[in-house]
Amino acid sequence: MDAPRQPSGDAVAAECRPDRSELAAALASLGLAGPMPVLVLVGGAANLDPTVADPLRRTFESILPCLDRLGAALVDGGTAFGVMRLIGDVRRRHAARFPLIGVAASGTIDSETLPDSARVQHLSATAPDPRLNPGARLDPYHSHFILVPGVRWGDESAWIEATASVLAAGRPVLTLVAAGGQITRLDVSVALRAGRSLVVLDGSGGTADLLADAWRSGRDIPEIPSGPRERALVQFLDLAQAPRRLPEILARALGG
């Protein structure tokens, strides 16, 4: 099965300009008025290889107490695949309290899979185009969803960044990158252009490892800005060490 948020090149949409006042109203309606620190999770939406999934699960488990203690929110793409499914499952199993907010383009998801337990705001009622995708399942364990305009994978990328910015309202925002494909490269580009700090889990595969290799060798990745400003925003963390080190990194980055 093709992985949601990992399309071929002709299915990737150009960035759009989210309406931040509309987003602020949607978040307030969800009881998420902020300000609060925000962790943005971007990465692989495919079924993760066990050699990656197991350490990622331990990593996600390690950061739950920190997110709860800081009163932080986590924002991702909300589908029931890859890192998004994994963080939803981990949050459920450990009864974590932080808001887990899925931001998805309404024309890319199956709205029938919206969980009854989640609070939802619709900023668009675009129907999926079956020529582009059949509509992806949403993760049943996310606490909130914001459905935004768009029919192609990648239409949600700028909205994810904008949601984090509006929700933070001046509090810190950090982006965590795990594995990932073409859409993750777009997510990374959006975050870097916004001046966001990134923690990249080296050894998780895909875009995360591509970034690590390129940064070490001084190579550029065509669609990702990589000047001195951007390079200073990126921190690499070996996946094997992440369960031990990431909670401290989050506490420093989001506790300000």
UniProtKB/TrEMBL annotation:
<dbReference type="GO" id="GO:0099604">
    <property type="term" value="F:ligand-gated calcium channel activity"/>
</dbReference>
<dbReference type="InterPro" id="IPR041482">
    <property type="entry name" value="LSDAT_prok"/>
</dbReference>
<dbReference type="InterPro" id="IPR050927">
    <property type="entry name" value="TRPM"/>
</dbReference>
<dbReference type="Pfam" id="PF18171">
    <property type="entry name" value="LSDAT_prok"/>
</dbReference>
<dbReference type="GO" id="GO:0005886">
    <property type="term" value="C:plasma membrane"/>
</dbReference>
<feature type="domain" description="LSDAT prokaryote">
    <location>
        <begin position="36"/>
        <end position="243"/>
    </location>
</feature>
<protein>
    <recommendedName>
        <fullName>LSDAT prokaryote domain-containing protein</fullName>
    </recommendedName>
</protein>
